[in-house]
Amino acid sequence: MNTKRISKSLLFFIIIMCSYFKISAQMKFDTTAKIQALVKQLTTEEKVKMVHASSSFTSGGVARLGIPEIVTSDGPHGVRPEFGRDWNLDNNSLDSGTYLPTGNCLAATWNPQLGYAFGAVLGSEARFRGKNIILGPGINIIRSPLNGRNFEYQSEDPFLVSKMVVGYIKGVQDQGVSACVKHYAANNQESKRFTINVQMSERALREIYLPGFKAAVEVAKVNTVMGSYNKFRGQWASQNNYLLNQILKKEWNFKGFVMSDWDAVHNTEEAYWNGLDLEMGTDLRMLPNPDYNKFYYGDKLLALIKAGKLSEYILDDKVSRILYVMFKTGMIDGKLKTGDYNTKAHQQTAATIAEEGIVLLKNENNILPLNRNNIKTIAVIGFNAARKQSMGGGSSQVRAFYEITPLDGIKNIAGNNIKVEYAQGYEIQRGGGANQQMIDEAVALAKRSDIVVYVGGSTHGYRYDLWNDNAYDAEAVDKPNMDMPFGQDELLDQLLKANPKTVVALMGGGAIDMTKWISKTPAILQNWYAGMEGGNALARILFGTVNPSGKLPMTFPKKLEDNPSYALGEYPGDTAKSLIVNYHDDIYVGYRYYDTYKVTPQFAFGHGLSYTNFEYSNLKLAAVGQNVTATFMVKNTGKVAGAEIAQLYVHEQNAVLPRPEKELKGFDKIKLAPGEQKTISIKLDENAFKYFDDLKNEWVMDKAAFDILLGGASDDIKLRSTIKL
Ligand code: GLC
């Protein structure tokens, strides 16, 4: 009887699965057949129209055949305000939306599920605003702390990027909107970004600069990729045969389409042969009267094809890829989703990401969390405490529906029985010295307050700032150094003298030089640009309503000279003459350098404190072939609930080619109640042990002993064990 029932249900299951695969295969076949049928009906003129922009943020459609224009919009952490054809902000449209925390705040959560939630909000709001492609995520590796766009990106570590990028892209694309992973590739500085020529070893490319993009394509199935401005090994990245045809389309079997960065195309033939599918932004050089037929993929392309100088089948491939994305997002034959806008749920997601992304760097004598019973007055000092940041940074700007500043957040949580007073302390004027009157006011306030919360750090330049050089964390400009700008060191020094109980919260896209005051302040938080709910998130962490769990996704060096792109590499390269930037730092990016070259950073990659403590124990390794499972226990030994990000690093003993001291190959975010203990497993496949041998030009795995290192930060290894493979 039993066997009969099992075989019946097994048979039923097999029938279901077969019909599922048959249907999905049929659907794929149908789409391919529909695409081919459309391509056959399109004239050459119509195909040419589809492969270049039709306005600042749209590409050409063919109404005759029901092929719509594609509507794109920035940016990686919110849907950008509307632009007219003439590139001026349309200040009359209802385009205030959800302003999420920026890329490196998301990465600092080390929580891939939040990556998905982030993408889902972004995709839903993009759909609501009628967009088909959101131009994000930006995932260029954070190589130098000076890069103006670090705030938009995620990490110095390719494994962390490849884990966080997948959720983001799936979140966006499940809303019926295409993500556009950018900027492919090696766009790691803003200095001379339009013209530099990046040179690096194949090993650095494969081990450091490509993995995030590879995961976006192979795991997240991203629909579109944006080529970057710079040259890569002498050829423009947006028309680069190696990057686009060889790696992206052939090796990774990318099915979607490649668009250029805006105004990143330099000639017709090279772009055409080398894999560029859609030319965007060339109108920028034609303002104020752009002629979209004058694009490289406009009349010129049409003429070359008509003259038989370029084969039309290449154009058919480009158009087919664009149609593939249209079918995949329901733009043709499908039901376009409607999306949501400015919902409480979206705002809650922004808050959660900020709460999990803000990093507690230092907390001496447990000055944090603040105990509201013994505080009557709080001084909130610093321009960043009251400054709205959402419209800053360049193309990633967002007109936030609202933005809770740190000052707002602290006032919200303080309630009536704590007096909160504010002093600006400094003004944003690059090259301007400290304003003594402002300092005096701030010092006086600090003196008479129980606690000081100083909110400083870097700042977003607003777009117009780029040209009056107030800009710091912004597109198109790098920071001049790691100094905390606008005379803040001086101000902070005086505040700390006036009131040693001064907690420092830094806003910005990454490391700044803290050496002048770090020993005197009892607590430091890295606040990134934590989005519209950032002020509430910071306040909840300050008062302990939220237990911080964020960890640094990039190393904070003590000073610029310690950074590998400075010490080993070239940054920003020979921007005066050859425009070549040699990545001599190679694979030694971030902690791969500091640990290997024994340079102690200010705060290490993966560092972040909690209001509780975690104990690691019982590390066991089990190998099946080249797959290893690391099992261990983590216990919350403190009095409050918290979340620990357990990080697993691999070290190869006596590697054939030099390897970094350690490489992140696994992590898990574990939420634990006080006293609670959990057993965690992290699975490692052969990729966790391989490195790219650019002499053999392939990934290799030595027969070697590998140390498995486990801990709460790259410089805080709690357990280690060795396995021979
Ligand atoms: C910009 C940026 C890119 C953005 C595009 C459209 O120059 O490099 O990230 O998506 O142009 O604004």
Summarize the structure.
With 725 residues, the chain is of the alpha/beta class.
Structure description:
- The protein has 725 residues and is of the alpha/beta class.
- It has 19 helices and 26 strands.
- The strands form 6 sheets. It has a 7-stranded mixed sheet.
- The longest helix has 40 residues, at 2-41.
- The radius of gyration is 26 Å and the shape is globular.
- The mean pLDDT is 95.
- The structure holds alpha-D-glucopyranose.
- Residues 74, 135, 182, 261-262, 395 line the site of alpha-D-glucopyranose.
Write the layout of secondary structure elements.
Blueprint: H1 2-41, H2 44-50, E1 53-55, E2 58-59, E3 70-73, H3 103-107, H4 112-128, E4 133-134, H5 158-173, E5 178-184, E6 197-199, H6 202-209, H7 211-218, E7 224-227, E8 231-232, E9 235-236, H8 241-251, E10 257-259, H9 268-273, H10 299-306, H11 312-328, H12 344-357, E11 359-363, E12 377-381, H13 383-386, H14 406-414, E13 419-423, H15 436-447, E14 451-457, H16 488-498, E15 502-507, E16 523-528, H17 534-542, H18 564-567, E17 580-582, H19 591-594, E18 614-624, E19 627-636, E20 642-652, E21 663-672, E22 677-684, E23 691-693, E24 698-700, E25 705-713, E26 716-724
Parallel strand pairs: 3-4, 4-5, 5-7, 6-8, 6-17, 7-10, 12-13, 12-14, 14-15, 15-16
Antiparallel strand pairs: 1-2, 2-3, 8-9, 11-16, 18-19, 19-22, 20-21, 20-25, 23-24, 25-26
Bound molecules: alpha-D-glucopyranose (GLC).
